[in-house]
């Protein structure tokens, strides 16, 4: 199981959402901490780092897996239209 760490931007975004949506996003992130590469995960191309994304409704969770530290770093959570800027 991977330890989960959130960026300040992802924490701030979660604080602005309603509780039901936050529950769904956190539930998905907890599943990622057990299996960081489920079948519906996609790698974001044209980035230097290996950043992955997973869909939760209209929202995207972007994260990096750091195997050396046993860490899943949630770098960004955003609506689909603003997630790739």
Your description of this structure?
The chain is built from two helices and five strands, in the order βααββββ. With 85 residues, the chain is of the alpha+beta class. It has one domain: YaeB-like fold. The protein has a five-stranded mixed beta sheet with strand order 1-5-4-3-2.
Topology of this structure?
Layout (H helix, E strand, L loop, with lengths): L2 E4 L1 H8 L3 H16 L7 E2 L7 E6 L2 E8 L4 E9 L6
Parallel strand pairs: 1-5
Antiparallel strand pairs: 2-3, 3-4, 4-5
- Give the termini distance in whole angstroms: 30 Å
The named CATH superfamily:
RelE-like
- What is the strand tally? 5
Indicate the structural class: alpha+beta
Rg estimate, integer Å? 12 Å
State the order of secondary-structure elements, H for helix, E for strand. Answer: EHHEEEE
**Molecular shape:** globular
Query: Kindly state the mean pLDDT as a whole number?
Result: 91
Strand order of the largest sheet: 1-5-4-3-2
Number of helices: 2
Classify the beta-strand content into a percent band: 25-35%
CATH architecture descriptor: 2-Layer Sandwich
Model regions low in confidence, pLDDT < 50 over at least 5 residues: none
CATH topology, by name, is YaeB-like fold
The total tally of domains equals 1
- Largest sheet, if any? 5 strands, mixed
Helix content: 25-40%
CATH class division: Alpha Beta
